[in-house]
């Protein structure tokens, strides 16, 4: 997470937050931030902001929230890269990633951060500790894919295969990664199945498997020989991709852990207020 320290939120009044994205009806982000507020005796509103449902293009909606009293917003699929072009990004690593998922409005400026990056690193280390990733197949080179790929660099990545139907996007990400780690071995292509053989880690950074997006990004037959798997999707937590991986005996890193990690890091950026992470986890598991 960035070392940025926001100005203290006012001690009274509602903290107004939101999430800009498509297909976010099942997101648990509103509940996470409301519960984080309750730990601090604060009222938090956290709005789901879907451009098409609001009759706005992304650019117009972003301008609206910037001017309408929001403390900050999270940004999710498919707008993270577009958001990065609209904000001040102080962290050179986040500039290299080229995608932001957390924006704070302060002092007349919109500042962008990427807590997917920090959230993924925390999720990986919680399950695999200091074990290096090994060769990784990552499916999807969009906003979350960029953050996860740079997270893998921090975890000791030596080889990555990037599958995306837009091969130019995969190639651009591979070049950005090699600029940070010149010795990195990269392969790219449009089909995940053709890049899977010999991969130790299998990662889904597409919306495939999410509520509203059926299917799996990689069939079980192509998982043989891998050691671990991560799915950025967390609605549902048990995606077909993860179910197949579990049946193959792979170590599972759930997208829920990325959701939780990016959420608590975003809360720190939005407010600077403390959190009891264990209590927040327990509260999120309780029926609404």
From TrEMBL:
Keywords: Amino-acid biosynthesis, Aromatic amino acid biosynthesis, NADP, Oxidoreductase. InterPro entries: Aminoacid_DH-like_N_sf, L-lactate/malate_DH, NAD(P)-bd_dom_sf, Shikimate_DH-bd_N, Shikimate_DH_fam, Shikm_DH/Glu-tRNA_Rdtase. Pathway: Metabolic intermediate biosynthesis; chorismate biosynthesis; chorismate from D-erythrose 4-phosphate and phosphoenolpyruvate: step 4/7. It catalyses: shikimate + NADP(+) = 3-dehydroshikimate + NADPH + H(+). Residues 19-103 form the Shikimate dehydrogenase substrate binding N-terminal domain. Residues 135-181 form the Quinate/shikimate 5-dehydrogenase/glutamyl-tRNA reductase domain. It is an enzyme of class 1 (oxidoreductase). Its EC number is 1.1.1.25. This is shikimate dehydrogenase (NADP(+)).
């Amino acid at each position: 997470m960035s070392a940025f320290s926001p100005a203290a939120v006012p001690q009274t009044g509602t903290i107004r937050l939101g999430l800009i994205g498509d297909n976010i009806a099942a997101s648990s982000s509103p509940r996470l931030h409301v519960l984080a507020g309750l730990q601090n005796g604060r009222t938090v509103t956290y709005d789901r902001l879907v451009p098409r449902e609001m009759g706005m293009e992304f650019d117009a909606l972003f301008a609206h929230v910037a001017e309408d009293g929001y403390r900050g917003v999270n940004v999710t699929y498919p707008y993270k890269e577009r958001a990065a072009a609209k904000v001040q990004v102080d962290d050179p690593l986040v500039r290299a990633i080229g995608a932001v998922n957390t924006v704070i409005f302060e002092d007349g400026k919109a500042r962008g951060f990427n807590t997917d990056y920090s959230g993924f690193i925390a999720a990986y280390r919680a399950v695999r500790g200091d074990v290096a990733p090994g060769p990784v197949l990552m499916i999807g080179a969009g906003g979350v894919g960029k953050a996860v790929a740079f997270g893998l660099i921090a975890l000791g990545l030596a080889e990555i295969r990037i599958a995306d139907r837009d091969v130019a996007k995969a190639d651009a990400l591979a070049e950005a990664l090699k600029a940070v780690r010149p010795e990195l071995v990269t392969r790219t292509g449009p089909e995940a199945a053709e890049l899977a053989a010999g991969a130790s880690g299998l990662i889904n950074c597409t919306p495939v498997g999410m509520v509203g997006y059926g299917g799996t990004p990689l069939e079980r037959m192509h998982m043989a020989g891998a050691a671990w798997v991560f799915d950025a999707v967390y609605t549902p937590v048990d995606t077909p991709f993860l179910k197949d991986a579990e049946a193959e005996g792979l170590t599972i890193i759930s997208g829920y852990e990325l959701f939780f990690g990016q959420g608590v890091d975003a809360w720190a950026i939005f407010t600077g207020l403390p959190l009891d992470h264990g209590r927040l986890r327990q509260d999120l598991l309780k029926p609404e």
